[in-house]
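Practice problem: predict the structure.
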Amino acid sequence: MSFRRIITPVDAVLQRVLALLMLLLVACVTWQVVSRYLLGDPSSWTEELARYLLVWIGLLGAAYAYGCRAHMAIDLLEGRLGKSARAVQRAVIALLVLVFALLVSVLGGGSLVALTWELQQVSAAMGVPMALVYTVIPLSGLLVALYACAEINDALRSDVR
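Answer:
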């Protein structure tokens, strides 16, 4: 199974979502500055929205960076390994990332979303259900898990060649 058929459209959608979220963040902060300093009446909801947008951008951006291999990595050992050992190392690291993403982000984040939905928590300024804000945690975990599966597949296929 070629993960590229799945990853390419996911990357395209994620790029557009991140660009839209960044655009919204810039517009939100700009409006906050205009309403505070030019109009003298600061908007009450823009600070909260900017905070939530920043969280979404951070988590989705981290997932995208992992998928593009643009994240920080310590590669001291990698250069000293042979091709087969390097492929095994890549697969093991991706497997650890997969387990972490599924356990912490998907299961833990999903539990947080379920709990806040059950408790009907809403944000202070906007009145938005906090479960919607926290939905980014399991979503980014699923994306990291997908990218980790693709990395495992690529590593194992590169070892075969």
